[in-house]
Amino acid sequence: MSTWIAIGVTALGCYVVKLAGLLVPAQAVERPLVRRLAALLPVALLAALTAQQTFAHGHTLMLDARAAGLGAAAVALVLRAPFLLVVAAAVVVTAGVRAIGG
Known about the structure:
The chain is mostly helical and 102 residues long. The chain is 78% helix and 4% strand.
């Protein structure tokens, strides 16, 4: 399968999903359960993506500098640091651990 066919199929799939979302009746979207799930779903997906990118290397569990950076970011968030400082702390700790061979 060529790359352009994969891109075309992906674009078509995205369009179909978007169209399906527009065709859902308003009554279905206004239900309290649906609203609550719609509010929580992005947070859950972002947390899963962060965990997968931090702790996975192929099909194996990997604890390396990325985990230290995530820990530094978590500490900065608990201390209510501004977002840019949270990112900076994660970057500096990750780079530091990699520099010392971790």
